[in-house]
Amino acid sequence: MLLKTFGWSFAVTALGLVAAVIYGGWTAFGIVAILSILEISLSFDNAVVNAGILKKMSAFWQKIFLTVGVLIAVFGMRLVFPVVIVAVTAKKSPIEAVNLALTDKDQYQQLVTDAHPAIAAFGGMFLLMIFLDFIFEERDIQWLRWIERPLAKLGKVDMLSVCIALVVLLVSSMTFAVHAHQHGGAHVDKAQTVLISGIAGLITYMVVGGLSGYFEDKLEEEEEREHEEEEEAARTGKKKPAVVLAGQAAFFMFLYLEVLDASFSFDGVIGAFAITNDIVLMALGLGIGAMYVRSLTVYLVRQGTLDDYVYLEHGAHYAIGALAVILLVTIQYEIHEVITGLVGVILIAWSFWSSVRRNKALAEAEGKATASDKTEVSSGV
Questions:
Q1: How far is CA 144 from CA 80, 201, 315, 337, 356, in A?
Q2: Are 115 and 85 in contact (CB under 8 A)?
Q3: Is the distance from CB of 286 to CB of 40 less than 8 angstroms?
Q4: Which DSSP state fits 55?
Q5: pLDDT digit of tens for each residue in the chain (381 aa)?
Q6: Distances from the Cα of 125 to the Cαs of 148, 200, 289, in angstroms?
């Protein structure tokens, strides 16, 4: 089971490390290994959230997630995305951006750093909306009840999460503008870019998430209707035409997963520049890490880990909220990527420990109930 799920990740790791040695020797080997670990540590919460969505999809779409999705994640976000950033912000052609990445790595890194406020605003708003929609939703299982219970009641107010997200974005952009003005005004014009990028992130979340939710609801309605008419379908031999609808639902959930992965990868791509500005080593290291994140996602789904450890999804969403805040703070202030990674790991570890305690308490309660029933039966006899 482990080899089947992580087999491709092991293979890509071997190929990536060999390619690193051929490209730049053992120094490159070490850099790629460090980048891989960085990506995995920063994206573990991504795997948990992905698993919550992927478990609703068929085995076919899970395979698509591991094949086509990997190509998008590795080549799209870890290789093409940094080049596109430079091409757009520096007003260069993609060919010029690639040439710059290979020939003048210091200037390339500087251009990506200059584009960071816009990237952080887009990714921060997208992730913040995921967290807000989760925390404002009424749910049967609550982890931190003293926080989640009152927030769930507030969540009954329409569009509350959107209003809060827009307020946060407005404060972030105004603070950035004031800070830039106090330090010479070199980046005052970027405050508008931050605002526009954040709104773009919000719109992207609402469009993709809305379409995904719409088709998911339609799919559930269709499945319920099919279940009610199961006997009639068996008697007449007619099949229900749900394949197209299932395909639409799965496609938009897949699209949502890819945008979600893109938002999670922002901090990894930016953080990678603290280690190297070599685009080849960056793509190798982050690509290996992305493979493990995807394999871990599928592993969590197939093992039913989220069903056994019910607070894991909560911990992952709190980690998303923390990452969103960190991204928005990094518009103006620098935060080390180690801190970013540790926050997510601590929150998920805490939720896992809470889940273990919950399972243990339930098992003890069930054991006591069983013993009590046996006692009553014995007394009756």
A1: 40, 28, 10, 26, 15
A2: yes
A3: no
A4: T
A5: 677 778 878 888 999 999 999 988 888 898 888 888 767 766 666 777 777 777 777 778 777 877 777 777 767 777 777 677 677 766 778 788 888 877 887 787 777 777 778 878 888 888 899 889 888 888 878 888 888 888 888 888 878 899 999 999 998 888 877 666 665 555 556 778 888 889 988 998 888 777 766 766 766 665 676 666 666 666 666 654 444 445 666 777 777 777 777 766 666 666 666 567 677 888 888 888 888 877 888 788 777 776 778 888 788 788 888 888 888 888 888 777 667 767 877 888 898 899 889 888 888 888 777 766 666 555 554
A6: 21, 9, 24
**Residue 227 is encoded by which pair of tokens?**
């279940």
CA distances from 120 to 43, 299, 323 (A): 16, 30, 10
CA distance 57 to 60: 8
**Residue in this structure with the two tokens 């790629």, named with its chain if needed:** 32
Residue with tokens 């992580």: 6
CA 356 vs. chain centroid, Å, equals 24
Two structure tokens written together for 97: 């951006």
Upper half-sphere CA count for residue 188 (Cβ side, 13 Å): 7
Which residues make Cβ contacts (< 8 Å) with residue 281, sequence separation at least 6?
Answer: 20, 23, 24, 28, 31, 32, 35
Identity of residue 233: A
Contact 127, 327 (CB under 8 A): yes
Domain residue extents for the chain:
1-367
